[in-house]
From TrEMBL:
Keyword Signal (UniProt): yes
Protein name: DUF2911 domain-containing protein
Taxon lineage: Bacteria, Pseudomonadati, Bacteroidota, Sphingobacteriia, Sphingobacteriales
Cited InterPro entries: DUF2911 (IPR021314)
Stretch forming the signal peptide: 1-27
Taxonomic superkingdom: Bacteria
UniProtKB keywords: Signal
Annotated organism of origin: Pararcticibacter amylolyticus
């Protein structure tokens, strides 16, 4: 009987120890994600369109030609490649894009039009395994410089298509 009491006392002590030293550590505040996942969706014409992306912040950095190099494929967001989904065939800058889900990439240029890429491999991390032979569509788009700072990268769906907005750049892409 005495041994049974000691076993129960030891089990109770162990439970108290676990509760005291493990629960508070799991209740600590989690740090905010540096580039939180975001998405935007709306109808463009008859198509339901959704863009899902990681939203990095400027944080005082030079973005174009700095953090994001000119002339190189960029994932158009942070972390996973940005995805563009449409449930109907659409025209992007006048060119046909079949319904589906695509990785969205951009090649920024310093003094020229930027290339917007819809790649058939939607699920990929960044642009590290980007394969041009898997492109469904490439279009050229002229960026606009703006004076207002867009601290966090975001996409906006408009009547004319969608826009990438980050730092002092807006990149309008016509979709019908």
């Amino acid at each position: 009987m005495k041994n049974h009491f000691v076993v129960k006392l030891n089990a109770l002590a162990l439970l108290v120890y676990v509760l005291l030293f493990t629960v508070p550590s799991s209740a600590q505040e989690k740090k905010p994600v540096a580039s939180p996942k975001d998405s935007v969706s709306a109808k463009i014409g008859k198509a339901n369109v959704q863009i899902t992306y990681g939203s990095p912040a400027v944080k005082g950095r030079a973005i174009w030609g700095g953090l994001e190099s000119y002339g190189k494929v960029w994932r158009a967001g942070a972390n996973d490649a940005t995805t563009f989904r449409t449930d109907k065939d659409v025209k992007v800058e006048g060119k046909s894009l079949p319904a589906g889900t695509y990785a969205l990439f951009v090649i920024p240029e310093e003094n020229a039009e930027w290339t917007v890429i819809f790649n058939k491999v939607a699920k990929q991390w960044g642009a590290y395994k980007y394969d041009q032979s898997r492109d469904a569509l490439r279009v050229k788009v002229k960026p606009r410089k703006v004076t207002d700072l867009q601290e966090r990268l975001k996409y906006v769906i408009t009547k004319a298509g969608f826009e990438l907005r980050w730092e002092h750049i807006q990149l309008p892409v016509a979709v019908k």
